[in-house]
Amino acid sequence: MKRLLIIFIILSAAIFIHAQTSPIKFSVHVNPQFAWLNSDEEVVEPDGSIFHMQTGLNMDYFFAENYAFSMGLGINNLGGNLLYADSTEFSSKGEILLVEPGQSVKMNLQYIDIPIGLKLKTEELGYATFFLQLGFNPMINLNARATSEDAGFDKKDVRESIHLFNLGYHAGAGVEYKLGGSTAIIGGIRWSSGLIDVTDNDRANVKTDVISIHLGILF
To answer: Which end of the chain is less packed: N or C, by CB atoms within 10 Å?
Structure first.
């Protein structure tokens, strides 16, 4: 974590210097978010959300005055609680974790998030500029932990039971409030939903959902 923090600080400093003269705009953000898992199969049901954070860097390349291609890199913490109606097994470093019918499991999933999309901005109104953002979220799994008081295991590594790649889409709206020069603070709200199954359970089609408050600084 210390190495990641040092790299983040160096990148932020370089981005700030570069952004003063470039049409490419960079931002850093921290997004508090509520995440949950859903399924369209009867064998598993959503059983509550969890609170997590998403952090990262974004780059907006403006190909027209108010239109930009957007791309980012960050760490996204997702997950939720699932209630199983049938016996289910998770693999944890060679150990089999058995979940019986009626038992709930809390899943904490961590991904490298690489959002790509389009950003549409209004003209500046006073010190404020409003925007809409749409796109996709390719993600690579870094960590997966499962906890179940019912089944008697706590924070078990279940990456063997989680697909390495995940894909979702996002939509959001917000405002940039100029502080001076090219620097602005960003506030908004975002919705993101998964498009593919995150687990290797063939009887359950589990996808991620998240709603987040987008907080950042634009350089």
So the answer is: N
Distance of CA 46 to the CA centre of its chain: 19
Would you give the end-to-end CA distance of the chain in angstroms?
Answer: 24
Please tell me the total count of domains within the chain. Answer: 1
Residue type, 91: S
User: What SS3 class is residue 42?
Assistant: coil
Which residues is 56 bridged to in the sheet?
29, 74
Backbone angles phi, psi at 3, to 5 degrees: -65, -45
* Domain encompassing residue 120: 2-218
State both tokens at 22: 């470039």
Distance (Å, rounded) from C-alpha 64 to C-alpha 144? 41
DSSP state letter for 151? T
pTM: 0.86
pLDDT digits (tens, 9 = 90+) for 46-57: 999 999 999 999
Displacement of CA 217 from its chain's centroid (Å): 18
